[in-house]
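Why do we bother with holo predictions? Because pocket geometry can differ from the apo form. Keep that in mind while you read this record for magnesium ion.
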Amino acid sequence: MAEPYATPQSVDLDPVRLVEADGSPTSETRYSRDLPPETLSWLYESMVVTRDLDTEFINLQRQGELALYASCRGQEAAQIGAAACLRKTDWLFPQYREIGAFLLRGITPGQIGAVWRGAWHGGLEFTNHCVAPIAIAIGTHGLHAVGAAMAAERLGEDSVTVAFMGDGATSEGDAHEAFNMASVSKAPCVFFIQNNQWAISVPVGHQMAGPSIAHRAVGYGMPGIRVDGNDVLACYAVMAEAAERARHGGGPTLIEAVTYRMGPHTTSDDPTRYRSADEVQDWLARDPIARYRTYLESVGVFSERLQERVAARSHRLCAELRDAIVGGADHDPAELFDTVYAEITPELARQRDELLAELAKEA
Ligand SMILES: Cc1ncc(C[n+]2csc(CCOP(=O)(O)OP(=O)(O)O)c2C)c(N)n1
Ligand SMILES: [Mg+2]
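The structure, written out:
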């Protein structure tokens, strides 16, 4: 007789929400809003600092200091909520837009800036903070996250891995291999899909025929959950639950954080060519930071002192970024070849020598 299959999961289309767009608490009871005041303020600080640094990145790109930048404006709650409840030893596998998560891990603005300036090879320092280098090749890093989770388990570690992926990434074959592999091997991995409604100019509705991204989890036999990605407390609670399950042998979870990319895809994109001003306005009214600030005011956690502290940190980090980028020394391009393999191959050595010879001619 065939093995019995797992009982199908059901997925609620209504996202988990703890704070309404107007800042008032919802009637949700499965998840808790009760975090210590210091944690509540820290989440706020992290979101605002992320947004301010994001703006500085855009300014630097406009001033010709960076070729390209992908803004995370609008997605601060999703990223901060998801990353803040994890342990520092849990590995993050980012796509490229996760500035908030990078900052939470202690990656410096200059280190993030070097990646966007193309001055360093993909942010190798990120790995010192248990963050994999960014994955521009869409969808590939889901598999890395699953492999790392399976390895951690075999080594007897109780860490989890989190793959941050976009809605568009879930249209890639690699993502589905990752979902399946994670599920059948019960890997301690969480797929955190930021559904920001767009994959460059392709709306999410053109990418799948199913009811939601979270529903895809059903076919793979893992829990799928939709969460309001503009609600930092809901993202925190849902990720905390999924990470806990993964850490204790319960296998992977697919979380769909429903959010919005407020800016263009990257600084090279003009979104007015494919989306309406009304749509953008509609989402601006659901701004994750304004909503959370109103909530903090209502529970007596917001203060002038908090605001001043946040502004001072933003100022310091933006200055740090600017100092690192403008007139900052570039890394030695020869290093590009040193970290591909433990020992350089003859072909890479040939390419390195060719590059150095060309650079010497230019000097
Ligand atoms: C394998 C691959 N195909 C195509 C691209 C070009 N590309 C870059 S970003 C992107 C859209 C990704 O959308 P999504 O996963 O929703 O992430 P978002 O940019 O919205 O955060 C595409 C198609 C790529 N980088 N890699
Ligand atoms: Mg997207």
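The radius of gyration is 21 Å.
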